[in-house]
Amino acid sequence: xxxxxxxxASVMAPLVVSILxxxxxxxxxxxESRPPKQLGDSDVEEISMDSAGTIEGxxxxxxxxxxxxxxxxxxxxxxxxTTIGTGxxxxxxEQMKQLFPDSDEISFSSWLVFAFPLAMLLIFxxxxxxxxxxxxxxxxxxxxxxxxxxxxxxxxxxxxxxSFEEGIxxxxxxxxxxxxxxxxxxxxxxxxxxxxxxxTSSVGDGTVATLCxxxxxxxxxxxxxxxxxxxxxxxxxxxxxxxxxxDEVRCARRILDWAxxxxxxxxxxxxxxxxxxxxxxxISSGLSGAIGSMLCAFSSLPIFLVAVCTSxxxxxxxxxxxxxxxxxxxxPILASMSVAIGENPLILMISGTLxxxxxxxxxxxxxxxxxxxxxxxxxxxxxxRMGLIMKFTVxxxxxxxxxxxxxxxxxxxxxMPAWAS
Length: 421
Hints:
The protein contains 17 helices and six strands. The strands form three sheets. It has a two-stranded antiparallel ribbon. The protein has a two-stranded antiparallel sheet with strand order 3-4. With 421 residues, it is mainly alpha-helical. Helix 3 (64-78) packs antiparallel against helix 15, helix 4 runs antiparallel to helix 14 and helix 14 crosses helix 17. It has helices at residues 5-23, 28-33, 64-78, 87-99, 108-135, 149-158, 164-181, 205-215, 258-261, 266-284, 287-294, 303-317, 323-341, 345-356, 367-373, 380-390, 393-408, and strands at residues 44-46, 60-61, 185-186, 189-190, 239-241, 247-249.
């Protein structure tokens, strides 16, 4: 929700693998008293024994695939809950400005109210499916799982207290979330953006993100006022005696510096910009109107059926192409199609955007899938089978849009708003 799905999967996958390694180790005495083949091929994915009969590599249960698939799928689904959680959502916001400049802004708070419950519902469905297919204990299966609570407590204690820079990050993330949520106001509560301008769109979500990011270049990475019991930090601002006898003040390292800026994926920004230019080209060249005229044949079909069909096509297409690129290509087409059949463009555009993030079938479909696949635990057939079942969530997305979208975005079936005419 707050960081990219790629970063989330990169952080969570090693943690889960480490926990599975702790839980999946059979007691040493059992390994010495029975041949490895009696451990059961249905329970253990990979076992490596040394000459002493002890575990040499990682031991995983076969159903460990379910845990890693849960990370990949929940990272993709969770990103849809906020406007900044995934690339397709950001593309939708900008495409609406390009295609329909007079439309009402989709604020962070309105999208959160709409998409957060939907994301929780999809994650619950994912959990049920993973438990039923991979994790549940079948009759006759035996598992060698030893839960050592003392070991986990020792490792947790070894982490130590929250550091100064970790505390700063938590405060800034909380501040950023609150500023996003209350920027445009909720019900009778006015938004803080009106303090600067009557037009709340002049102070956007990007303004908040830029402000919080800039503060990371200001705050030091270490506490400038350490406690008396704390050892002196090598990065403190205390004077340092140089070989020539002079004093030099060593400035503390900031949380971010210019070297960190070099690691930003600038190519992703160019990809977004190219998609926005493509959307503008659709309008200025007249291609948007031509496509809309050709799609008038769909006006005889119910809009619910049209939304399900377009969402299914998109969710299978995004398995082979970039999610952001797919969004930038299909949104202008869906907008033209909506105008041609006389429906609110948000119906097809929102459902299409959410389906662009539902890439679950192949390791190359999305970065979280590729990350969990690199551990050589998840088999391609398992991901393909589970991903194919997850495609039925498209129906849940469209149903949720018709049920909740009318309250959060003012969507009415058969009513095309004035800004889309």
